Amino acid sequence: MSDQNGKLKKMMIILSKATLDNVYAAFVLANGARMEGIDAEMFFTFFGLEAVHKERLEHLHVATVGNPAMHMPTMIGGLPGMEAFATRMMKKEMEQLDMPEVLEFLDILKASGVKLWACKLAMDMFHFKQDDLYEDLDGVLTVGDFYQRSSGEGVQMLFI
């Protein structure tokens, strides 16, 4: 039996999609881990890189097509302006809850000790340079490097 007694020690969160709802879900979970004294690291891969791309992170949106939680037919979700409307509505609700904007939330995560990593493969695939990304990113890792950081007892990995 380990001395941790099954206690959660670290959350490793992989963000692969940068829709507004996925980004905030990942950020809230990482922030919540830190508030509970649990270490947290985030790995931004594929389209999740948009959440840390300087020019794109303030322009994230809600996906209305193919999202069953929207409770609307796909055809309606695909109408011009529906995605923008849903995004405005979600941002309005988050503002009423005093949720920080994406950039401010990244700053909060960093200040709380969350490690933020970009995926090397995804960066190469999208031709991103580290200068394109959030300045306080901890660096760029390969998947293998990320797995190495995930080793040990009391570590949980979450894919969003």
Estimate percent helicity.
Answer: 25-40%
CATH topology of the domain at 11-63 and 102-159: Hypothetical Protein Ychn, Chain: A
- Which residues sit in consecutive blocks of at least 5 with pLDDT less than 50? none
Determine the strand fraction and express it as a percent band.
15-25%
Tell me how many strands there are: 5
- What shape does the CA trace take? globular
Question: What do these coordinates show?
Answer:
The chain is an alpha/beta fold. The protein has a domain at 11-63 and 102-159: 3-Layer(aba) Sandwich (Hypothetical Protein Ychn, Chain: A), CATH 3.40.1260.10. The protein contains 6 helices and 5 strands. It has helices at 20-35, 74-77, 82-96, 102-112, 120-126, 143-149; strands at 10-15, 39-44, 115-119, 139-141, 155-159. It has a 5-stranded parallel β-sheet with strand order 4-3-2-1-5. Strand 1, helix 1 (20-35) and strand 2 (39-44) form a beta-alpha-beta unit. The longest helix has 16 residues, at 20-35. It is globular, with a radius of gyration of 17 Å. The protein starts with 9 loop residues before the first strand and ends with a strand. 24% of the residues are buried.
Please summarize what this structure is.
The chain is α/β, with parallel strands linked by helices. About 40% of the residues lie in helices and about 15% in strands.
